[in-house]
Amino acid sequence: MTAVTKDYKLFTPLQVGEGLTLKNRVVYGPLTRARSDVHTRVPNELNAVYYEQRAGAGLIISEATAISEQAFGWYGAPALYNDEQAEGWRKVVKRVHARDGKIFLQLWHMGRQTHPSLNSKGEVVSASATCYEAPHAKQQGRERA
Question: Where are the bilayer-spanning segments (predicted)?
Fold first, then answer.
C-alpha cells in the first residue's frame, strides 16, 4: 500500500464475531447479474469469474439466489434448492476462497412479485393474496442484447 492509504481503517482486517475475520472492511454488495443458466438456474463459469474478480473485497454478498422454483422473479437469476445448483455454488465459492475471499449467499424469494411463467407449475407463492400490478421481469421470447 502507498503511504497515503496504509493507515486507512478501510484497508485493515476486521473481526466479525468469533469465527470470521475479513481481510479489509470493503463489502461488495449484491448486484443481480442474470448470468446463471436460464433453465437450470445453476451458477456457471461466468458467475465464478465474476465473483473471483471481486475477491479482493473483505466480504462479497452474492446476488439474490432463489430458495425454490416458486421463488423466482428475475430471468437468469441463480438458485440453491437442488444438488446441481449446490455444486455450481461450490465452484464459485472455491474460486473466491482460492483468492482469500469471503462470500455470503443472499437467499431470496420474490413472493407476490414473481411471475408464473418463471416456474414449471405456474404458481405464485406468497404470504399475501394481493396481486402485484407493476411490470414483471420475465423472458419475452426473444434474444437478450
Answer: none
User: What does the block give as the cell for 43?
Assistant: 451458477
**Among the listed ranges 8-12, 90-94, 99-103, which one has the minimum average pLDDT value?**
8-12
**Total domain count, the chain:** 1
DSSP string over the chain: --TTTTT-GGGS-EEETTTEEESSS-EE-------S-TTT----HHHHHHHHHTTTSSEEEEEEEESSGGG--STT--B-SSHHHHHHHHHHHHHHHHTT--EEEEEE--GGGS-GGGSTT-----S--PPP-SPP----SS---
CA angle 84, 86, 91 (to 5 degrees): 100
- pTM score, whole prediction: 0.81
Q: Which helix (H) or strand (E) holds 45?
A: helix 45-53
Q: What is the span of the domain harbouring residue 87?
A: 23-115
Query: How many angstroms separate the Cα of 17 from the Cα of each of 49, 84, 111, 128?
Result: 29, 32, 32, 35
What integer pLDDT is reported at residue 9 of this predicted model? 93
CB atoms within 10 A of CB 113: 15
